[in-house]
Amino acid sequence: MSRIVIVSNRTPAKGPAAGGLAVALKKVLAERQGFWFGWSGKLTDSPSPTAQIQDVDGLSVAQIDLTRDDHQAYYSGFANSILWPSFHLRLDLTTIESHWYEGYRRVNAQFAAALAKLLRPDDIIWVHDYHLIPLATELRRLGVRNRIGFYLHIPFPTPDALYAIPHHTDLMRDLSHYDLVGMQAKRDIAAFMEFAEHQAPPTFASSANHHVDFSRTEIVAFPIGSDPDAFASLSVSPAAQKMITRMRRSLGDQQLILGVDRLDYSKGLPQRVEAYEKFLAHNASFRRGVHFLQVAPPSRDTIKEYQATSETLDAVCGRVMGKFAEPDWQPLTYVKRAYGQPSLAGLYRLARVGLITPLRDGMNLVAHEYIGSQNPEDPGVLILSRFAGAAEIFPAALQVNPFDTDESAEAIRVALEMGLEERRARYEALMAAARKHNVGDWAEEFLAHLSRKPGDSAPQHDHIYLNSVA
Asked: What's the domain range around 385?
C-alpha cells in the first residue's frame, strides 16, 4: 500500500491532538504508513536545506526551519494579511506588499526541495490549506509525478475578491497542478467554477492572461466534520461534569448562551455581542434569567487587524456590562483563553443556546462539536450563521444573517422559548448530519479519490464535483 505524506504549515506537537482534524490525520498515518511534513516552528538565520525527521508519539514527522524574514513574508504577510482576508471577503483588511509574494513562493519552493528528497515514487501527497497553494507547482518542477491532493480549509473567494489578490492567476495555475482539489462547501465549488469558466480579465499589471487549464484536476466538495460520538462521550466525562458543576454553581437558574471561537475578525464577535445587547434591550423579562459566555482565545495577535478586533470586542462587552449589569447579576462573561476539549464539551452540553455566527467560515467545527455534546433528552438549540460552510449540512439549525443583529437577537429569543419536542427534532436531524459528515469518513473519502489511478472509476460521492473545467 502506498505511503501517505501529509503536508501542512505546522506539524503536530507531542501530546494529545488538539482537535478532531489532527486526530483523524494521525489515524490515517497510523493505518497507512507515511509521514507528516511541515515547518518546525523554529526561526533560524539560514533556511533548512533538508528536513529533520523525528518520532512524535509514534508518528514520523519531518520538519524544516524557516528564516525570520521568510516566515514574516510567507505567513504573517502573504498568507494571513492577503490570502486570509481576501478568501473571507474582507478586502478592506488586506495589506499588500509586493515582496511578500516572493517570500511566499520562496518558502513553498523550500518546502518542495526538502520534501522531494524524502519521497518514493508511489507516495500519495496530501497538502493542506492556503499557506501551500504553490507546493504542487514547485514539486512538479523538481520532477515529482506522484498523485498530489490539496484541501482548502477556508472558504474559496468569489471571483471579484480573487481578482483583488496579487498574482491570482498564478495561484489558480498552481491549483491546476494538483490531481485533486478539495473544498468545504458547494458555494466554494460554484465560486471556483465561475473563475474557471470565465478566467480573469486583462488588467494594467497583466495584459495578456493565459488560460488556466483545469482539465486534469478534479474539484470536489468534501465537507469536513468532527467526531460527534467522541464529543458525546466527552460531554459526560468527569472533566466535563466538573466544568458543568462549576458553571451551575455560578449560573444558578440562569440559562447559558455560549459562543466559542478564535479571536478572529471573520468570526463576527462584535456583531454577536451587539445582537445579545439588542436581545436584552427588547426582552427585559429575560434579564437575570440568561447569561452569555464568549470563549475567544487570541489568534495571530501580532497582526494589527486582530488587535483591532480584540479592542472592539472589549469595548462592546464593556458597553453591555455598563448598560445591563446589576450589583447581583452580570449579563455576560468574556474569556480570552483556551480550554481543553473535555471542558468545552461540558460547556457545550450545559448551554441552552449555541451562538455560532461567523461572518464567513469554511466550515465551523464548533457547530459540529456543540451538536455532538448535547443531551439527547434535553438538547440545546444551535443558532448558526448562514455564511458558515456548516449551514449547507445543518438546515435544522436556526440560521441567521450575522450582519443583521436584529435577526440574531430574535433568534436568541426563539431559541430560549423553543419547546422540548421541537428541540429534540432539530437535534436529531443535526446529529444525523454530523455523523454523516464525521472527520474520519471525510479523510477516507478524500484519500479514496486521491488514490485513484487515471482511468479508474470515481468513488461513490454524494457531493458536487467536476472532473474537468476548461
From this structure: 228-436
